[in-house]
Write a structure and sequence with these properties.
The chain is α+β, with helices and mostly antiparallel strands. The protein has one domain: 3-Layer(aba) Sandwich (NADH Oxidase). Bound molecules: iron/sulfur cluster. The site of iron/sulfur cluster (SF4) has 14 residues, from loops.
């Protein structure tokens, strides 16, 4: 894995990262659309992906804000930063052993999602849905590159990182966005938080990454094997029923499965 060492992250500082070329996971785009290999008219969706990938990657403005802070205490559902702010959720599962955390907000700007909405409004459903799926995957790439930057910093300090943990997912209320937005100057990258804690542009990702001694954490250590969420589309490990539930996902914003049929526009 290539790690990004371009940005000089420092404890206590908010650092703005710009990503010139965001990679696109085309399989992720297909999954987001609900495109299956057996679909008869899959070719027209593939053609739309081919046509839109390059221009939409050019339109995306990948940026992220990252701030690393020391942890004062970490309990199963409550993490307190050394300078006072408190983050609540399944932090004991996702961020176990963390001595520091990196708070981040990543975005691709609003250009691609505005184009997607315009196409949908005008009845061009194939282009609109493909653009929306590409935008989601590019936002995920921006978050991944931010994660790589944090990991490069951690490894240079003989540490490693936990998985990313985002408000609205896996038992962390979306209201925890207010903590992240009070710690990071989100306007610098054009991201705003609504009264209901939704981000604008929508194609933005925020979250927390734990940093701990390398022998204690890995970025792939998701607690999905112990989580009994019934229909989570982000599940990364099969549920091991005998291990019970580790995550209170009742407050979780995991989105429902995509239902778009790959029929006409
Ligand atoms: S199964 Fe889903 S809700 Fe549960 S920990 Fe994994 S990603 Fe989170």
């Amino acid at each position: 894995m290539r790690l990004n060492t371009e940005w000089a992250l420092e404890v206590g500082d908010s650092v703005l990262c710009r990503f010139d070329a965001l990679p696109l996971d085309r399989d992720g785009v297909r999954r987001a659309i609900g495109l299956r290999p057996s679909t008869n008219n899959g070719a027209r969706w593939e053609k739309a992906i081919d046509e839109l990938e390059k221009p939409l990657r050019g339109l995306a403005r990948g940026r992220a804000l990252i701030r690393i802070e020391p942890v004062a205490s970490l309990q199963s559902r409550r993490l307190t930063l050394a300078h006072g702010p408190v983050i609540e959720g399944a932090v004991g599962q996702f961020l176990a052993h963390s001595q520091l955390v990196a708070l981040f907000i990543a975005t691709i700007g609003s250009g691609v999602e505005r184009l997607s909405r315009r196409w949908l409004r005008n009845g061009n459903v194939v282009r609109g849905l493909v653009a929306d799926a590409i935008a989601s995957e590019l936002a995920e790439s921006a978050a991944f590159l931010a994660q790589q930057a944090v990991r490069a910093w951690a490894l240079s300090h003989q540490m490693d990182i936990t998985p990313r943990y985002s408000p609205g997912y896996c038992g962390m209320s979306v209201r925890q966005q207010t903590v992240l937005f009070s710690e990071l100057p989100a306007r610098q990258i054009g991201v705003q938080l609504s009264a209901s804690c939704l981000m604008t542009p929508v194609k933005s990702v925020s979250g927390i990454i734990g940093i701990a001694p390398a022998s204690q954490v890995t970025p792939e250590d998701y607690p999905c094997g112990r989580c009994d969420h019934p229909n989570c589309m982000q599940r990364r490990v099969p549920f091991e029923s005998r291990r019970g539930s580790c995550v209170d996902w009742s407050d979780c914003g995991v989105p429902p499965p995509p239902t778009h049929e790959t029929e006409g526009d």
